[in-house]
Design brief:
- The chain has helices spanning about 10-20, 25-30, 50-65, and strands spanning about 40, 45-50, 65-70, 75-80, 80-85, 90, 95-110, 110-120.
- The protein is an alpha+beta fold.
- Strands 1, 2, 3, 4, 5, 6, 7 and 8 form an eight-stranded mixed β-sheet that branches.
- Strand 1 and strand 2 (about 45-50) form a beta hairpin.
- The chain starts with 7 loop residues before the first helix and ends with a strand.
Length: about 120
């Protein structure tokens, strides 16, 4: 296995940048999909095992012109697995902000981290 070229912090920062800029390719290249790689959102329908739904979600965020930033991330790396939890802040054009809750499980692939599972909750305080 190659040495890691990025930390979990780097991977999370890149993911927030991809969400902010609408970089759909990042999600196609760095997120694993399939029966064991489930990505969960707030609503019951947000139970995703394919890239199609997540790519559409990224497009919608990009159309809203939102900015994503960390809200105090913590993470841990253990061999070929890592996890991160955060309360990212989403800022809208009008200056309003909403705090989310996010957990991500990473799997090491060659020299970088790939997202094996994620759970994002938005709203409901």
């Amino acid at each position: 296995m190659l040495p890691l070229s990025e930390t979990v912090n780097d991977a999370m920062t890149a993911m927030y940048h991809a969400l902010t800029t609408g970089n759909i390719n990042w999600f196609k290249e760095r997120v694993l999909y399939g029966p064991a790689s489930i990505h969960i959102g707030t609503a019951p329908a947000y139970w995703m095992t394919s890239s199609q739904f997540l790519v559409e979600l990224v497009r919608q965020f990009n159309e809203m012109n939102v900015e994503w930033r960390t809200g105090g991330m913590t993470f841990q790396e253990e061999g070929a697995t890592a996890w991160a939890v955060d309360r990212p802040v989403v800022r809208f054009d009008d200056g309003s902000e909403i705090e989310c809750r996010l957990s991500v499980i990473f799997s090491r692939a060659s020299d970088r981290w790939q997202v094996a599972h994620s759970h994002l909750s938005i709203g409901a305080e």
